[in-house]
């Protein structure tokens, strides 16, 4: 029994050594092919999962655009809602890691200030220059950056 066990162990070691030598020379063994095909299958599975994930994101965007189109057909409010949502999303991106709420609140309060030449946001107006950039909350860019110098800053209909 011991001799047979020792012989099997020795044969197993010799076979492993042959396989290692074959791999070192770049020869393909049956085990190596199985190992590579297993890795390939894993990689293909990863690619399929990634593609499904991208497809899900695409479907979500398509669903959002269909919803916006329906809103536009039903009441014409879709564009307005979409613009408002996008502005809020941009503001949300700006707020990450920073507390801009107070600054935004101050701007919101100043929007109705009579000293501002663009105080009525809803009214369609021609191009105008704001006369007082220190009190006008609309004189800051949509992304929250500071206003351009007075001579360069014009506002269109909001």
Automatic annotation (TrEMBL):
Stretches for region Disordered: 1-117
Superkingdom, natural source: Eukaryota
Bias kind Basic and acidic residues: ranges: 1-43, 50-81, 102-113
Protein name: Uncharacterized protein
């Amino acid at each position: 029994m011991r001799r047979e066990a020792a012989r099997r162990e020795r044969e197993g070691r010799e076979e492993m050594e042959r396989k290692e030598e074959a791999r070192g020379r770049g020869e393909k063994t049956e085990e190596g092919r199985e190992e590579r095909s297993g890795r390939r299958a894993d990689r293909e599975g990863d690619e399929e999962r990634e593609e499904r994930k991208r497809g899900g994101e695409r479907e979500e965007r398509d669903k959002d655009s269909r919803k916006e189109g329906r809103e536009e057909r039903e009441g014409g409010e879709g564009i307005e809602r979409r613009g408002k949502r996008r502005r809020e999303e941009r503001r949300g991106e700006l707020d990450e890691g920073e507390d801009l709420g107070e600054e935004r609140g101050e701007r919101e309060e100043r929007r109705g200030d009579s000293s501002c030449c663009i105080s009525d946001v809803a009214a369609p107006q021609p191009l105008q220059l704001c006369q007082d950039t220190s009190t006008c909350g609309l004189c800051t860019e949509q992304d929250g950056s500071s206003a351009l110098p007075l001579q360069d800053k014009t506002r269109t209909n909001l």
